[in-house]
Specification:
Blueprint: E1 12-16, H1 17-30, E2 35-36, E3 38-39, H2 41-46, H3 49-58, E4 63-66, H4 69-79, E5 84-87, H5 96-101, E6 104-108, H6 111-120, E7 125-128, H7 140-147, H8 150-155, E8 158-162, H9 174-187, E9 194-196, H10 200-205, E10 213-214, E11 237-249, E12 254-255, E13 261-262, E14 267-272, E15 288-291, E16 294-299, E17 307-310, E18 321-325, H11 329-335, H12 340-345, E19 352-356
Parallel strand pairs: 1-19, 2-10, 3-4, 4-5, 5-6, 6-7, 7-8, 8-9
Antiparallel strand pairs: 1-11, 11-14, 11-18, 12-13, 14-17, 15-16, 16-17
Length: 358
Amino acid sequence: MSDAGAGTPFPRLIVDLGALARNHGRLSALAPGAEAAAVVKAGAYGLDAGRLGSALAEAGCRTFFTATASEGAALREAAGADARIFVLNGYRPEERALFAGHALIAVLNSPAEIAAFARDAPGASAVHIDTGMNRLGLTLDEARTLADDAALRARIGLVHVMSHLACSDTPAHPMNRVQLERFLAVSALFEGVERSLSNTGGVLLGPDYHFDLVRPGIGLYGGSPVGLKAHPFEPVIRIETPILQLRRVPEGETVGYGAGWTAPRDSLTATVALGYADGLMRAAEGGFARISGHKAQLVGRVSMDLCVLDVTGLDVRPGATAVFLGEDLEDLASAAGTIGYELITRLGRRFNRTFENG
């Protein structure tokens, strides 16, 4: 258990670096013929890319994906000089010094980016081929044109060809097979170039989707790509926060803004130091925390700094600790009408962040 921030009335965000490393090992085992990279964009989903990047590098991860060049440059020291760092959002000429100075690999998404990269020659590159997401990437025809131009491929230092699955969070969705077949056909034109297609959901789709490298994100952080509680990954993050006050709420009385919850019987509630300013979404009523391992349901609307738990029947005292997320990440996300990815990346700056090696 962490001791940082003990005694403070503000919440603690605890990141288990040991669980993170073990999740990377599980993902490697699930795709035994492929290298398991790590997606650490948005500051490792807001958890601290430097600390998590170092832990992943120590666990043997040698390839990382960030969203922007500035993220990649900030990651370089943590990842190590020999790590590969790919930048998913492409290349802009004004960022040439970042790419060249930190040996970043640009993921090129358009013919214009390819032309600019070939002119500036800041290092190695990858190419993103759109196979059905319709978000970023070369069209299939543009990819075929590049495949036919050996001189251009050499000028951009092409080392990797990738695409991205749109529906891997729905394993039975026919789009998964459509994208796989499109990627198989077009990527085969880039003979001898490393290939990747799978995020965490793609890893779980099986070996047809693994290719040379997989790019897991949410699974590393203990979440499920399909929103299910049953998945093979360990919880990595939890929030610990104190109970500030206990209240006896008579049957028929209401709790919170808008009188949003009415006590169905004489109830005991606990007011907790956690709110939407910390990233607990306002719509999370119906989710729950744990107190000494027992579930306590969120009741009423989450407010800026506080939320309320129904602790009727539990042996609870003011100052006791309520624990959010952990193994209950997906349940809380579902209650808020969102996904684990959003809950993690919304976690606020007010937390006392602590890192464990459990």
